[in-house]
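# nightly structure sweep
# worker-07 picked up a monomer target from the shared queue
# config: single-sequence mode, recycle default, output format = structure tokens
# input follows
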Amino acid sequence: MSFSAKVKEELVKKNGTARHCQIAELSALIYMCGYMVPCREGGMGLCVQTENEAVSQKCFTLLEKNFKIDTGVTVSDNPYLKRGSVYAVTVNDQEQVRRILQAAKLNVQGEGISDSLCLTDHMVIQNNCCKRAFIRGAFLASGSISNPEKSYHLEIVCQTEEKARHIQGAIWAFDIDAKIVLRKRSYVVYMKEGAQIVELLGLMGAGVALMELENIRILKDMRNSVNRKVNCETANIHKTVNAAVKQIEDIRLIEEKMGLDQLTSGLSEVARLRLEFPEATLKELGMMLTPQVGKSGVNHRLRKLSDLAQELRGDKEVRL
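# output follows
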């Protein structure tokens, strides 16, 4: 089971205790994946369609608990995929449809079009508890979350910009920076920050998924921190080794061209120690000198040896 499916499985079992929260969640489910359908007897019925069986069952439960509507869930093959089914909850009774839309603060525009339902009154999500329920319903209807082992990405796909703005506004109410992007013909509300996705999961009530994601984030942060330190130390080692190799080459050249005995005592002592201890750090070399010299002093002497070697390579006048 994917991480996204785990989150939805947990959220489906999460029910608001207050009726207004249940109505807010139902409103989001209808708003995001509901549409009007013509009835045989005339008039328009309400259909909520989803590819997730658990989500359809939750929609059915919310309708039954809050409106005493006795309807069923129909199953059909998905016309767009070779595998999978489409689950639909349909209400044909005109009075029941009117009561549902009125309570959910949804209005019908046009006939039989999938995006014909619009949110007419924000009273349905006036309270923070209702906003949480509304966001949960929207995510169940058309949301998804990537595997946090690979990346952090949560999104809710909306058919219209208006719907995306409503979802974004509800999320913004909790100081979570949700963004909107146009993808083909859909408007996608998304987040890519791990910390904000964790916060949203908590708001929706997905505590188990939240803890799993947090554990993965902690492990990834630890691995990244260790990798950064290892890379930094490796780079420093390479830098030290390359510098030591260059210093030894310079000293060998000086030894060949003029001999180390021609150097001043300070330079001669550092040169011999570098040849004897090629892997020693500047600090370690300084500790071996008599009297001892700090890192900057050792580095100064090695630079003078490098300058001298450069002069010898260029057949310039040698200055000791």
